């Protein structure tokens, strides 16, 4: 059974929240970018927490039958980028999130209220 982008978005947000991710933001990129339908952006306060958030999202995606296309940055745990197809997840370390400020780069995107 295929997982639609809204279900995938909610699953990623819930998994991040369950691992106490900070300041979780979901952006709707439909009509703005061909990269993905949604970005999920969050951060952890330590390398260990960043890895735990990303690991939980990957685990839940696999359980839901979603295809995890790629994960980058797990070793350094400063910025983990997860390609879930229609949803791209950015799990930052707090310092890197402030520096890169992805939300500002995608300011045309609407913030999505998630479950």
Q: Roughly how much helix do the residues carry, as a percent range? A: 25-40%
Q: What coarse outline follows from CA principal-axis ratios?
A: globular
User: Stretches where pLDDT falls below 50 for ≥5 residues?
Assistant: none
| Average pLDDT level | 92
SS content category: alpha+beta
Radius of gyration over all CA atoms, rounded:
13 Å
Biggest β-sheet strands, sense, barrel: 6 strands, mixed
- The number of distinct helices, counting runs of at least 4 residues, comes to 4
Order of helix and strand elements from N to C terminus: HEEHEEEHHE
Q: Order of strands across the widest beta sheet?
A: 3-4-5-2-1-6
The first-to-last residue Cα distance is 21 Å
Q: Tell me the number of strands.
A: 6
Strand content: 25-35%
Give a description of the structure.
With 115 residues, the chain is an alpha+beta fold. 37% of the residues lie in helices and 27% in strands. The protein contains 4 helices and 6 strands, in the order H-E-E-H-E-E-E-H-H-E. The chain has helices at 5-18, 47-64, 94-100, 102-105, and strands at 22-28, 38-44, 70-72, 79-83, 87-93, 110-111. Strand 3 and strand 4 form a beta hairpin. One of its GO terms (cellular component) is cytoplasm. One of its GO terms (molecular function) is ribosomal large subunit binding.
